[in-house]
Amino acid sequence: MFYRPAEGHSLPHNPFNAIVTPRPIGWISTRDAQGRDNLAPYSFFNGVAYVPPQVMFASTGVKDDVDGTKDSMANIRETGVFCVNVVEYAAADAMNKSSATLPHGSDEFAHAGIEKAECDAINCARVASAPASLECRMTQIIQIEGETNFVCFGEVIGVHMRDDCIVEGRFDVSRYNPLSRLGYRDYSAVREVFEIIRPDD
């Protein structure tokens, strides 16, 4: 099968998200200028550089009560900071609850029953129980093709790691099983880890 996205795919559901998988989930926490906390998952998320460490996430929708985007992006525009919380398999239900479309200014931490903690380097809340949280300073927001598609880049200026996830000096994902997004309503948990040595190592 071949299709041109501009002309449609003729399938019952869009296959694009199922093709680009698995995708890590950035559980993005922000705080607006009035001090109200927000938490939302984004599966268009990834790390993009080592030195300095940098991440990105894309917001591809709009809310009626926010000007041209969603709460997370609007808050970052106001404050210039955000936190990426790693999602473990055990937090799948809480992550899903935090994706609910709530009125602007609502606290998804409270809505989903998620304990919050204060960040250290930025004025923002984080998921207290997350295996890791990355405190970020926004470096740029870029609008890409599409009226409501924005990509936010941030430099990681603070890192939290849960002590039980550090094993013999390494951050061990097998201790918490990262949750990843597949297509449609499907998710996966990382349960198998193996090592491949690069030819130049």
Which keywords apply here?
201 residues; mainly beta; Pnp Oxidase, Chain A; 7-stranded antiparallel beta sheet; 3-stranded antiparallel beta sheet; 4 helices; globular; Flavin_Rdtase-like_dom
Molecular structure report:
- The chain has 201 residues and is mainly β.
- Helices cover 12% and strands 35% of the residues.
- It has helices at residues 16-19, 71-79, 92-97, 108-112, and strands at 23-24, 26-31, 37-42, 45-49, 54-59, 81-86, 116-118, 125-127, 132-143, 150-161, 166-167, 170-171, 179-181, 187-189.
- The longest helix has 9 residues, at 71-79.
- The N and C termini lie far apart (40 Å).
- The model has no long low-confidence stretch (mean pLDDT 96).
Strand order of the largest sheet: 3-2-6-9-10-5-4
What is the CATH C level class, in words? Mainly Beta
Strand tally: 14
Number of domain modules: 1
The N- and C-terminal alpha carbons lie at a distance of 40 Å
Poorly predicted segments? none
In CATH terms, what is the fold-level topology? Pnp Oxidase, Chain A
| Rg over C-alpha atoms, rounded to the nearest angstrom | 17 Å
The CATH architecture term is Roll
Q: How many helical stretches?
A: 4
The description of the largest β-sheet is: 7 strands, antiparallel
Outline type = globular
Overall residue-averaged pLDDT value: 96
Percentage of residues in DSSP E strands? 35-45%
Secondary-structure element order, N to C: HEEEEEHEHHEEEEEEEE
How helix-rich are the residues, as a percent range?
10-25%
